[in-house]
Structure formats: structure tokens, C-alpha cells
Amino acid sequence: MSPTALPAPRGRPRSFDRTAALEAAMRVFWQKGYTAASMTDLCEAMGIGSPSLYAAFGSKEQLYAEALRHYAEIGGTQLFQALESAPTAREGIEAFLRFSARSLACPERPLGCMVVLSAVASEGVTGLAELVLEERRQSLHKVQARLQRGIAEGDLPAKTDVKTLARFFVTVQQGMSIQARDGATPEELEAVALTAMKAGPWG
Fold first, then answer.
1. pLDDT(1) > 50
2. Which of 50, 62, 99, 184 could join 188 in a cystine, given CB atoms 3.0 to 4.6 angstroms apart?
3. Residues 6+ apart with CB under 8 A from 199
4. Buried b vs exposed e over 7-35: b needs ≥16 C-beta within 10 Å?
5. 7 lies in a domain?
6. What is the mean pLDDT of residues 80-96?
């Protein structure tokens, strides 16, 4: 995905692990959001000073955008593999929701989905808001495409409203993100996922 143009930072030799620093920044933004994450928070987590941060990543906005893309890449790969590799549409959607339930409430990292939580955190920052919106659209598109494939392969009735059904399942997933932040366990979210599956016209 090509985000709305945020200018590239100027290059300069670095003496730190850029990938590790980006991972640390991602976790800070994931936990605190764009506005609440201060430059002090970011520098401390990344183990670098502000001059190095600006030289390597440009601005706080550019760092956030790169961290969000990094999150989408590492988090989305397994999620959408689970969705797309399942033999039937029903199994794909169930894998999508159950994988989400386990990952969103994983106690070893910040709770919830960074993309969903960023929907509010990035308001008022035009470039970031557009980037977050595009990430959410991509998720909806992938779910809808899997359901459409289900029709083509005979898993779903030909008259299935895949657009509405996709929005339903993505809405459930996004709601689970908020529930995870509020303390829901993986088991509780998996129960939600299984309940949501009853809405599908699986036959």
C-alpha cells in the first residue's frame, strides 16, 4: 500500500538497529496512540536521542506512519494467510476471527489492534488519518474477496450479500479489539467469534 505522501527523511549514517528501534516505536504508539506518545517516550523506548530519531525517521508523523505500516505487515500477513488459505469460506472466516481473538488479547504485547485504535488516535492528522482508513479498507476488501471466492467455489449461495456480510465480520473483529483493551480474554473473544459465525449462510 502506498500511503498519502509523507516526505522521506534525509539520509544519514546510523549506529543503531533501525528495525529494532521501529519495533519499539510501534509498541509505544500501539499502547499510547499518536497524540499521547511523547517524543521522550519514543526516544526512551527506541534507545536513541531525538536528533537520531529525526535523522532516521523524519518527524513524529512519519515515524508513526512507518510504525503503522510495519504493524500491518507483520500482523496482517498471518491473519490474512489464515483467511485465504482455508479450504472453504466458512473455515477462512472462522480462522480470521479466531486468530484475531487470540492475537488481540495476547498478554505479551499491547492489547487490541493498532489499526483500529489508530482510527481515533490519528484524527486531525490528515496524512495519518488517510493511511489508517486505507489499512481498514484493505482488511474489508480481503474479507469480501474471500466471501466472493466462496460463492465462486460453491461454498456460499449465489445470492449471498458478500458486501454486507464482510462488513459484519470486520465490525465484529474491530469490536473485539476494543473488548481486548477492556480486558476480555482470548477465550472470551473466541466465544464471540463462534457466535458471529452463526450469522453466515453456510448451509
1. no
2. 184
3. 165, 168
4. eebeeeeeeeeeeebbbbbbbbbbbbbbe
5. no
6. 97
Give the pLDDT confidence score for residue 82 in this predicted structure: 96
Q: Which residue has the cell 515515524?
A: 63
Q: Would the CA dihedral through 145, 147, 153, 157 be positive or negative?
A: negative
- Domain for residue 109, yes or no? yes
* 47-78 pLDDT tens trace: 999 999 999 999 999 999 999 999 999 888 99
Q: What domain count does the chain have?
A: 1
Task: Determine the structural domain holding residue 147 and report its residue range.
Answer: 69-197
pLDDT, tens digit, for every residue of 143-153?
Answer: 999 999 999 99
Q: What Cα–Cα distance (Å) separates residue 185 from each residue in 2, 30, 45, 70, 97?
A: 34, 18, 27, 25, 14
Q: Is 53 exposed, middle or buried (0-12, 13-18, 19+ CB in 10 A)?
A: buried
* Residue 37 domain-assigned (yes or no): no
> Cβ(146)–Cβ(94) under 8 Å?
no
Task: Kindly report the CATH number assigned to the domain that includes residue 143.
Answer: 1.10.357.10
- What pTM was computed for the model? 0.86
